[in-house]
Amino acid sequence: QVQLVESGGGSVQAGGSLRLSCAISGYTYSRYCLGWFRRAPGKEPDGVAVINDYGRTRYIGSVEGRFTISKDQVKNTLYLEMNVLKPEDTGIYYCAADSGGGDGYCFLHVNDKYDYWGQGTQVTVSS
Fold it and tell me: How does pLDDT run across 54-80, given as a tens digit for each residue?
């Protein structure tokens, strides 16, 4: 019943910007973790950014300072603002949500706590 739908992916040149959106429905947890993950070509999925219900964020080192994760509670939408994009940022980006009830610390790696996933949106950065 929980649905996550990503949008906003596309092709940009290195140094450009892109904003991804994740529309969330049927999700009623009051204490939760939301996040963005990506899979580069031929690579294993990798965490990008996460945010908890209090707005606390965490980023992988390679995107810190360039990417910003945020959420709009009224629109039930998760965002990922990506700036100064690099070719190594290329991949399929997925949004995910856990089952709630955590301690407020959100993990960046893929694990069983993230039970709900979107279908992914392609991001391609050319050099």
Answer: 999 999 999 999 999 999 989 999 999
